[in-house]
Amino acid sequence: MSSCSGCSSSGAGQPGAEHKSSAKQNIQDALICSTLDKIRYKLFIMSGKGGVGKSSVTVNTAAALAARGYKVGILDVDIHGPSVPNLLGVTALGIEADRGGLLNPVQVNENLWLVSMDSLLKDKDTAVLWRGPKKTAAIRQFVSDVNWGDLDFLLIDSPPGTGDEHMTVLKTIPEALCVVVTTPQEISLADVRKAINFLQYANANVLGVVENMSGLACPHCGGEITLFKKGGGKELAERYGLEFLGSVPLDPATVVAADMGVPVVMLEGESHAKTGFLNLADAIVTALDRSLEAISGSHG
């Protein structure tokens, strides 16, 4: 990663430094625009709270879309706690560059690719001690310096909260459509309401709301247990006039799949979670097809 423009090594304060910095940013802006022009839909998966399963929703939705035949990329912008590679079973270190100097995303299967901070670390147990400007620079480079190619979908997995990463994504990819993930209980809904308020202030387009961990699928009888209640996500969507994209139940199969490094939608056999994620992917495609924001923001 190159030094951010605020570092002393960048030449700030020297004659012509400001002009050089501006010219460099203009070039990067052009590269970002060129990259995004080749990606039809950009989905920003976020929530105001940690532990609601954003990464699981991102990975399984991406895998479901890939299984439907779409070309899908995952951009993991959780700089400090990237978990997407583990959920996909990606253990390779480093990202290779092509002949043009662009980085190639890690290929998961024939329709699915990934870029994550985790892939750039020599030791996966190393903590990333970065402040805002450096995180912003990294996220921009994940778009401008990566050879994403032609994609139907780019799913962007975010950290909890509404911080530097979220503002950078919305500024860098203004046509991104936000998918807000919550769990049914009030402690989650309270933080998600703050996240929706943030998106309103940022004038971001929200595609809809997903309720994760919506009831527990009993591993013995298949019946439903309302462990964390149910329906809070749908009520939240109705309150804010947002589309409710669907719910995914708690399912022991999801835990097994995560430990194996395989998305539950890619496991053999049927499960409640697999069905939920496949239905969610279909609901997202349907919502995109009828979304005026998506039509105006898509390319190709």
Automatic annotation (TrEMBL):
PROSITE patterns the UniProt entry points to: MRP
Keywords: ATP-binding, Hydrolase, Iron, Iron-sulfur, Metal-binding, Nucleotide-binding
Annotated GO biological process: iron-sulfur cluster assembly
Region (Disordered): 1-20
Record-linked InterPro entries: Mrp-like_CS (IPR000808), Mrp/NBP35_ATP-bd (IPR019591), P-loop_NTPase (IPR027417), YlxH/NBP35 (IPR033756)
Compositionally biased residues, Low complexity: 1-11
Name by which UniProt lists this protein: Iron-sulfur cluster carrier protein
Function: Binds and transfers iron-sulfur (Fe-S) clusters to target apoproteins. Can hydrolyze ATP.
Residues bound to ATP: 48-55
Subunit: Homodimer.
One GO term describing the cellular component: cytosol
Record-level Gene Ontology MF annotations: ATP binding; ATP hydrolysis activity; ATP-dependent FeS chaperone activity; iron-sulfur cluster binding; metal ion binding
Family: Belongs to the Mrp/NBP35 ATP-binding proteins family.
Phylogenetic placement of the source organism: Bacteria, Pseudomonadati, Thermodesulfobacteriota, Desulfovibrionia, Desulfovibrionales
Pfam families membership: ParA
